[in-house]
Amino acid sequence: MSGNTFGTLFAVTNFGESHGPAIGCVIDGCPPGMELSEADIQPDLDRRRPGTSRHVTQRKEPDQVEILSGVYEGKTTGTPICLLIRNTDQRSKDYADIARTFRPGHADYTYAQKYGLRDPRGGGRSSARMTAPMVAAGAVAKKWLAEKHGTRFLGCMQQVGEVAIPFEHWDHVPNNPFFAPVADVAHLEAYMDALRKSGDSCGARIRLVAQGMPTGLGAPLFDKLDADIAYAMMGINAVKGVEIGAGFGSVTQRGTTHGDSLTPQGFASNNAGGVLGGISTGQDLEVSIAIKPTSSIISPRDSIDIDGQPLEVVTKGRHDPCVGIRATPIAEAMLALVVMDHALRHRAQNADVRPPLPPIPGHRPAQVG
């Protein structure tokens, strides 16, 4: 099975299965000399892990990360970094009834068609549990980018189901289980409680921002920064749409509005989302993603078995009524991995090049030393 490695110079190979003994990743290409310990990685894994509130899956996984290689005396050596996360709370019996059936909305059918067999326990490789190693790798990228460029990654929920969430302040995001940028989430709690009782699920919209972006990251045509961002976001389970900047709102804008005017003080707006011609402008990267409703629900649905016979499927087990609730740290991590990879590519290609123009106030060229 190919397709398990993400990135070019900062390459992350993901391994494991949802109900196997462990999951993890190998990071190849992390620069040497950066101080790194499990304590640098664990906080982001704690934000993503299951069982943190009644609104997400009640699978109890501590998601304690172990660094197996690539770090010596507290610093990265430049060799592959292996990160391991052990699975401790598998309940594979919950999936015994669906070993011969195809759950609507899941990858059961396509995996069986492609490989001739599949691991039905929690979805195997197609499980959202496989995002945990990417969050761990993203934490490493975040640390390097913060130290070298001062780049900071933020994310929040903009909408859950039909409920739009206004933006109040980033400070509210860590204080509620929804990663919502509002002080009062009582209406979101009530909405999710009702949804769970009904046996149904809903989707979500997540906003991502990278602040302190250097200019010049990305390349023309097929290695555009925004193209790689879209590629990364679509690699997250359940993501069905990606917007950069104004996104689909650009359809109703006029050119006089959408084009971000330049002034001696900087850009007058950011409809482009921090990317022009596939290259970063130094403005904030603005990304949003659409996440589909959770496919694992207890409401009966029509399907077929492996013999093509019709049947009714009821998915048992512990599942998120909205997988978007835990998606924020995952999407932050994937955005950080893209920026990290492009920062290293820029450094490799432009080590002897200096920007021909002075940077716009507040925007810094990428460091190449």
Provide structural commentary:
The radius of gyration is 21 Å and the shape is globular. With about 375 residues, it is of the alpha+beta class. β18 and β19 (about 310-315) form a beta hairpin. Helix content is about 25%, strand content about 20%. The protein is built from seven helices and 20 strands. The protein has one domain (about 5-365): Chorismate synthase, AroC fold (4-Layer Sandwich), CATH 3.60.150.
| CATH fold field value | Chorismate synthase, AroC fold
Outline the biggest β-sheet.
5 strands, antiparallel
Number of strands: 20
Stretches where pLDDT falls below 50 for ≥5 residues? none
Mean pLDDT across residues: 90
Report Rg. Answer: 21 Å
Strand order of the largest sheet: 1-2-3-7-4
H/E series:
EEEHEEEEHHEEHEEHEHEEEEEEEHE
Q: Please work out how many helical segments DSSP would assign.
A: 7
Termini Cα gap = 38 Å
Shape: globular
How much β-strand is present in the residues?
15-25%
Q: List the domain count as a whole number.
A: 1
Which architecture per CATH? Answer: 4-Layer Sandwich
Under CATH, the homologous superfamily reads Chorismate synthase AroC
Considering DSSP H and I runs of 4 or more, what fraction of the residues is helical? Answer: 10-25%
Secondary structure category: alpha+beta
